[in-house]
Amino acid sequence: MSQLLTESPKHCANKGLNINKLHKKLFFLLSTAFTSLLFLIFLVYLILHPTKPDFALKQTDIYQLNLSGPHLLNSSIQITLLSRNPNKKVGVYYDELQVYASYKGQQITPDASLPPFYQGHGERNLLTASLVGNGLPVAPSFGYEVGRDQMAGKLALSLKMNGRLRWKVGTWVSGRYRFNVNCVTVLDFGPSVPSSPLSSKQGTQCSTTI
Fold this sequence. Notes:
- The protein has 210 residues and is α+β, with helices and mostly antiparallel strands.
- It has 2 helices and 13 strands, in the order H-E-E-E-E-E-E-E-H-E-E-E-E-E-E.
- The strands form 2 sheets. Strands 3, 4, 5, 6, 8, 9, 10 and 13 form an 8-stranded antiparallel beta sheet that branches. Strands 1, 2, 7, 11 and 12 form a 5-stranded antiparallel beta sheet that branches.
- The longest helix has 40 residues, at 9-48.
């Protein structure tokens, strides 16, 4: 004669409690491991303390900067930037680099893309970009402002670069951080200065924010 095995409600309740305890232990172990990993990454970051990269504007050549209509601008500017990684133990990946020129707070060229690259410890790289725009809308005061600068004999131009970077320590690579670079150059610009190109070869240190 066969026997039916039955479990009391108390026995089922004890089994449920054991499963809950197992889930809690597993969650605690995973949480501890994740927290330890974050702490280790943070500790490595504090020890190495990556310094933001340096940028300097080495040369600027303005080949065209004139109005083709009441408020439409044609521009052609060539720039050369020097990038330096000051870190001795941290490499830098640069991604999604965009460069453009602005004059008195208004953008006067389209964004130009630069190819992504890796910069090792203490390395330097020259970056060149051609900024060319046709029929770009500008403020009604643009022609007046340029004429006033020509009378003063100086033209101040801002070159800006935006992008994302990643730190590399050994085989570990960080997430992406957005960074911005701002450079200002002053060019001779007067009635006696040749109209094209306007050139500046004086090195200008740029400001970098991450």
